[in-house]
């Protein structure tokens, strides 16, 4: 049975929460000094800050990977193989969040460059494993070291305790959002 789309009323913000479309202007009090507007701690504003930060960090990561001569899919697949060893193609795709068609294409490109090879699975004769070639291992080890340094420079804006706190809070928020999704 199909769910009917939500009505505008169902999408409206609860009446108890006022909708703020833009920050209130800064008003000068009688003393002549400007006071800052009230801090916006809404869920929407929090998400917007997270989204903008994520996009900026992602652009740094993509630039780092592009400088290495790899696409994001190829880098992710090779990094997984470096740290987890030979894997079936479908497992690689699931772990790096690619569709079966996209991961097959990425592995084909890597295989054409002699960076990975497909080999028979030792216990499942229907499946094939993908493993790094020695050339691929050398490339991804060097690339991963460079990428790790690039991402460390990107994260230098935060101290170690700030990073720990950010990770702790993002895990809480992420788990709550995932739980919310599973309930609907």
CATH architecture of one domain: Orthogonal Bundle
Give the neighbour order of strands across the main sheet. Answer: 1-3-2
Radius of gyration, Cα only, in angstroms? 24 Å
Residue runs with pLDDT of under 50 for 5 or more positions: 1-21
What CATH calls the topology of one domain is Arc Repressor Mutant, subunit A
Task: Say how many strands there are.
Answer: 3
The shape, in one word, is: elongated
Distance between the termini: 15 Å
CATH class bucket of one domain:
Mainly Alpha
Reported for the largest beta sheet, the result is: 3 strands, antiparallel
CATH homologous superfamily placement of one domain: Winged helix-like DNA-binding domain superfamily/Winged helix DNA-binding domain
**Beta-strand share of residues:** 5-15%
Give the oligomer, counting copies of the same chain as homo and different chains as hetero: single chain
Q: Given the structure, what is the number of helices?
A: 7
Structural class: mainly alpha
SSE succession:
HHHEHHEEHH
Please state the average pLDDT score: 86
């Amino acid at each position: 049975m199909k769910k009917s789309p939500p009505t505008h009323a169902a999408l409206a913000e609860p009446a108890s929460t006022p909708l703020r479309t833009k920050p209130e202007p800064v008003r000068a009090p009688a003393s002549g000094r400007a006071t800052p507007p009230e801090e916006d701690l809404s869920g929407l504003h929090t998400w917007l800050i997270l989204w903008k930060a994520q996009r900026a960090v992602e652009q740094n990561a993509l630039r780092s990977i592009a400088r290495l001569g790899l696409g994001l899919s190829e880098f992710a697949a090779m990094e997984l193989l470096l740290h987890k060893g030979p894997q079936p193609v479908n497992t690689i795709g699931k772990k790096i969040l690619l569709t079966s068609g996209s991961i097959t294409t990425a592995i084909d490109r890597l295989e054409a460059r002699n960076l990975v090879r497909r080999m028979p699975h030792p216990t499942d004769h229907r499946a094939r494993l993908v493993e790094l070639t020695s050339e691929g291992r050398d490339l991804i080890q060097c690339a991963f070291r460079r990428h790790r340094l690039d991402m460390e420079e990107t994260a230098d804006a935060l101290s170690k305790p700030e990073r720990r706190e950010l990770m702790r809070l993002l895990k809480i928020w992420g788990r709550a959002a995932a739980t919310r999704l599973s309930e609907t």
